[in-house]
Design goal:
With 256 residues, the protein is α/β, with parallel strands linked by helices.
């Protein structure tokens, strides 16, 4: 069986200024990984990095806009210059367009969500893969942060749900194509956890009724993702690629 040990590994995380990425950085650093945090809100990254360093971890903050390929390459170059070759890339950057249906959003809404959630994940993975090929490294590890909305959704999650459905499919296709260079590509698909993205729903008057549709009768917490994250980031998942792990309290298999 592979080891869950990630000490000394360099993990780069996009969208690390809040939500899942913010939490993941702390979890990975606490277990000995070196973490590079990328996001547009550098002031928030600075605060998180200082927290990690105060707890004895290794971390560095970098400006990153995943909608811009030059910004992505600069992020990867700077992260590797600071902490060494990236062992694991976590494509976590994600946004939503508010509670709007397909006929309510405009092109700017669509472009903002798709360019961040989907195109950004592709461009970042592409730049990372190029580093691996050019450096003739032994392989790589990409973790996508998808969502159970890739499978089931509710009204008002368009185009977020569309982007996550495509991101899950991207995970599978990239796993097929990346195996040539020993690059593993897997995804976490969280259920409903209180983040900036889900806050509109989970703090609304609909929340008490909505939670009844989750077999475990509760929303998720950040810590519920720690085990699956460490599995995918470590050698314990060395024979896994193209896998999508749902962490949702049974929500996607709930009774109709």
């Amino acid at each position: 069986m592979g080891s869950f040990d990630i000490s000394g590994r360099h993990v780069a995380i996009t969208g690390a200024s809040s939500g899942f990425g913010h939490h993941f950085a702390g979890v990975l650093a606490s277990r000995g990984a070196k973490v590079s945090l990328g996001a547009r809100r550098v002031d928030k990254l600075d605060v998180r990095v200082q927290e990690i360093r105060n707890n004895g971890g290794q971390a560095a903050p970098f400006a990153l806009d995943v909608r811009n390929s030059d910004s992505i390459r600069a992020f990867i170059d700077a992260a590797e210059a600071a902490l060494g070759p990236i062992d694991v890339l976590i494509n976590n950057a994600g946004v939503e367009a508010g509670a709007k249906t397909y006929n309510m959003i405009d092109e700017d809404d669509w472009d903002f969500v798709m360019e961040t959630n989907l195109k950004g994940a592709w461009l970042t993975s592409k730049a990372y893969t190029e580093k691996i090929i050019q450096g003739k490294r032994k392989g790589g590890n990409i973790i996508m942060i998808s969502s159970i909305t890739d499978t089931r959704t509710i009204k008002g999650q368009f185009p977020y749900a569309v982007s996550k459905g495509a991101l899950t499919r991207m995970t599978e296709v990239m796993a097929l194509e990346g195996a040539k260079w020993n690059i593993r590509v897997n995804a976490l698909a969280p259920g409903y956890v209180l983040t900036d993205v889900s806050r509109i729903l989970l703090e609304s008057e609909r929340a008490p009724e909505f939670v009844k549709g989750i077999p475990m009768r509760r929303f998720g917490e950040f810590e519920d993702l720690d085990g699956p994250l460490l599995l995918l980031a470590s050698d314990a998942s060395s024979y896994m690629t193209g896998s999508v792990i749902a962490v949702d309290g049974g929500h996607i298999c709930a009774s109709l």
